[in-house]
Fold each of these.
Amino acid sequence: MASDEQFPVHKPDEEWRRELTPEQYRVLRGHGTEPAGTSPLNEEHRTGVFRCAACGQQLFDSQAKFDSGTGWPSFFQPLEGAVATSVDRRLFMRRTEVHCARCGGHLGHV
């Protein structure tokens, strides 16, 4: 799992809690998972750019969005330099975690 100190945007935990909703904090800072099918971004079809809810970093162009059948918003390509990955060994398995390259906000797994 990535350490917050390695990202350009670093804030104390109390500040993140003030700025984010409880659910945003749980997912972005606590590496939580939204229940499948519950994200309003699943139904977002306007042209534009998807941004990190924590720091505003541009992450994905809307043209890279696709329906993966998983129930989570999915993208086949991030914007250049927008996301980073780390190895997540929680849950007794090795997974690749995707996070915002600017603030480290958890975006999911691939």
Amino acid sequence: MMHDSPKRAVRCVRLAIEDAPALSSLESRCFALPWTEQAFAEAFAGKTFHAFGIRETASPLSPRELAGYIAVYHTPDEVEILNIAVREDRRRHGYGRLLMATALQDAKETGILQGVLEVRISNAPAIHLYESFGFRQAGKRRGYYQDTGEDALIYTLDMGQTRTNP
């Protein structure tokens, strides 16, 4: 699956185990407790893990480097959004929106009916993005994040009402 962004020369592509180093590199730029290259490789070895990445076609980034990515697990009736990350210098260009739209559309095409994710209570930009796709708060996990003890909000989505391009 490939989507082109109208604002920049970018491609949103399905990622594979060969992309584990680039995923790990981006994770370490974006998260305090990043997934390792080995963790990504192990996830790709399973049948339920899927990831999509943003590659810029005319960019100083190397051809294998990612500007952003989204990782999800598929079960027969649910897609769990695991992580979504965009390089700090590429934020506010619609990359997160493109990644989310791609992952949700892919899930819908496989017949998945529900979506779920966790988000830090302080991450207002992410919450805004998720709500724009129709995710609704369904609960809270107190002290969920190991690095800060911050609470996580649980969001769910009825895939029959998904706005894949809000």
Amino acid sequence: MKKQLVLAALLATAPFVASAEGLSYSYVEGGYTRVDVDTGVAGFDPELDGGYIRGSVELGENFTVFGHYSKTQDDVRVNGIPGTFDTDFESAEIGFGYHADISDRADFIAELSYLRQEISVENSSGEGKGGKLNLGIRGEMTDNLEGWVKAGYIDGGDFDGNFVGTLGGQYKFNQTWGIVAEVEFVEDTTQYMIGARASF
């Protein structure tokens, strides 16, 4: 009888345990992305469209390794100049993350990564490589809706030092599938993403 009572109690509390552990740090994700670039050149502000893929794997209880790649393109017109300019923007990132509970539904998150970006216009291109540090909070607002906010800094290598802000969220259909939307602001560049995420 005692064993049956213990088993019944465990089964009864299982849904509450699942809710408290509803934030998954192991996932793959992909979708559409748009990058708006303010070049500082009058009439030349590319709005680039493309795709992205990213993923994360949890290592132990508090650490993750993650990666991200996106590529966007547009044929850009410049005021006063005939024709268009083929413009491409690529971004790749790989790094390590740390997370710790601050409540039953929210985590403190920290991310340190290596970032590489390249923008090319016709036959000319420029590349930037450096480090990126993000600190933020990720939490569940409901059983199906979560969000995150991060503030960070990009510096080192080819970067002079820029602040970065990120705001995102996920609507979860079930424990595996969800729809993700995110926007990231970095000085003269804004990147929007919307995609599907599979958590495991």
